Give the backbone structure.
Amino acid sequence: MAETFLFEIVTPARLALSCEAACVIIPGGAGHFGVLPGHAAMLSTIVPGTIELRDKSLKILDRYFVEGGFAEITPERCTVLAEVATPLQEITRDDAEDRVKRAHDALMVSEALNVRVTAERDLRTAEAMLAAVNEYEKQGAH
Amino acid sequence: MASLKDLRVRINSVKSTQKITSAMKMIAATKLRRAQSAAEEGRPYARKMEAMLAGMVGTLASRETAPKLISGSGEDRSHLLIIITADRGLCGGFNGNVVREVKKRISVLRQEGKAVKVICVGRKGRDGLRREYGGLVSETLENVTRAGAQFGPARDLSRRLLTMFEAREFDVCTVFYNTFKSAMSQVVTAKQIIPFELPAAEASAAAEGALAVGSYELEPGEGPLLDALLPANLAMQIFGALLESFASEQGARMTAMDNATRNASDMIGRLTLTYNRTRQAIITKELIEIISGAEAV
């Protein structure tokens, strides 16, 4: 069996990443899952969180923060459709904290139900972003 | 006949107009190139999403439990038209064509006794409709594509549409925009986005594109997946329309400004000719006066 598979992150603006990967961890709608070469064909939603690219010995090579989307997985390929995908090292703690604060404020002043739903979703995304940054800094410290 | 000074002033003013139009043409050309590459880079996402959706809708078609975004609200009483135009003029028939098409559609829908609501993206659409159908325009979004088409506004608009649809404020939603054919030609397109229609030709093509969904495991299940996929697709459809419209706008402006520049140089040529003739006529007249004066002595 091949040792790697084609991994792509596609955003509406562009093809954000296309490379060979040995292992990818994806925050799926029904829990995180890992993708290795030869994974069963699957379609999944993605919740806001970190996508990790790892090499054969499972060492983390790269991290991307995605704000939700979809993943299509076949034995040879894994394609992530994400509205926004940012390399985690480009997100600073200040950005994330600022975003949580803004989302929180928006939620506080929201009254109409639909505004509330959107604001809650934004807050969840922002919190996931902050959590991802925290995790990253913790691991970076080692 | 105009005096020499008048002609000189006129020529200078046409020259400066020409400078402006040729600068606008060059700006439009640059923006067009960027818009085109943006449109191309957005294509993989759109294609993938369409393929996924085509597969899922294909397996779903037999059932009656389809989400409302596919099956519709079960009625066909009120229509929402989204009109994507530019914020500025000076781009030939770009805005006018969309507005004309929309007016036609509104009058047809009204004859059928349906309620019509309009959301304008871009100021020129609202301006064009104000006189006849100003009361129908419920909202105008401006400066959406100032720095090129972005995904953010498209997503915001799609979210708003979803809440409006859930509140049953409309049954059918159609987007009007210019499709980019070439820098010379743009085609006004009306695309129904709610309820979602899969274009037949694309559906079969997309279905062939490696998506027999039956062979996929779906996580977290078909219902939730579709519920997430359909709004995302709605945003993508609007984003696609914005991209097309933005590229068309730049193309139309480039062509219009190219024409204007050419007209200006024609005009300068004509005016210069008149100027030279007038000058010559004055010289001749003065000579005649001098000569006939000398002869009279």
User: Anything to note?
Assistant: The CA atoms of residues 49 and 266 of chain B lie 50 Å apart. The first helix of chain B runs from residue 4 to 60. Chain B has two domains: 4-22+256-292, 32-252.
